[in-house]
Amino acid sequence: MSAGYFRLVNHSSNSVVLNTMICKGLDVSLHASSVSRDGVMTMKSVQNILIEGGSALTFKPGSYHAMIVGLDEFVRTDKVQCSLVINDTQSLPVVFELK
Questions:
Q1: pLDDT digits (tens, 9 = 90+) for 29-44
Q2: What is the CA radius of gyration of the chain?
Q3: Contact 51, 59 (CB under 8 A)
Q4: Are 98 and 32 in contact, with CB atoms under 8 Å apart?
Q5: How far apart are CA 28 and CA 78, in angstroms?
Q6: For 8-24, how does the pLDDT look when each residue is reduced to its tens digit (9 = 90+)?
Q7: Do 94 and 86 form a contact (C-beta atoms < 8 A)?
Q8: S-S: 85 plus which of 19, 21, 53, 76, CB 3.0-4.6 Å?
């Protein structure tokens, strides 16, 4: 299992919703991490992440991120092609660099 980090910028004046991420040959789910009052790190699966118009959302350790299963199949490549599903109807193609 691997984690994916990236930054999404919404250049429009309207809010958009990131519903999911699809990568051929991989099992991908979006998650949010947080720290409880007791100092315990928790992680939960999330869907429908709101990105306000004119703002950005950074997927990073300790926050939103993608959990990815199956990257070991891509060991001979340095990039993975995926699609971000926005507002349930738009598919935004993206290429992620593997590090």
A1: 999 998 888 889 889 9
A2: 14
A3: no
A4: no
A5: 18
A6: 999 999 999 999 999 98
A7: no
A8: 19
Number of domains in the chain: 1
Encoded amino acid at 68, one letter: I
Name the residue with tokens 């919404």: 10
Question: In the Cβ-directed half-sphere of 98, how many Cα atoms lie within 13 Å?
Answer: 15
pLDDT band at 70 (very low <50, low <70, confident <90, very high): confident
At residue 3, the 3 state secondary structure works out as strand
We report the CATH number of the domain holding residue 59 as 2.60.40.1890
- Amino acid (one-letter) located at 85: V
Judged by DSSP in three states, 72 sits in: helix
b/e per residue, 44-56, with b = 16+ CB within 10 A?
eeeeebebeeeee
Q: What is the pTM assigned to this prediction?
A: 0.84
Task: Look up residue 49 and give its two tokens.
Answer: 């992440």
Question: DSSP letter string over 15-30?
Answer: -EEEEEEEETTSEEEE
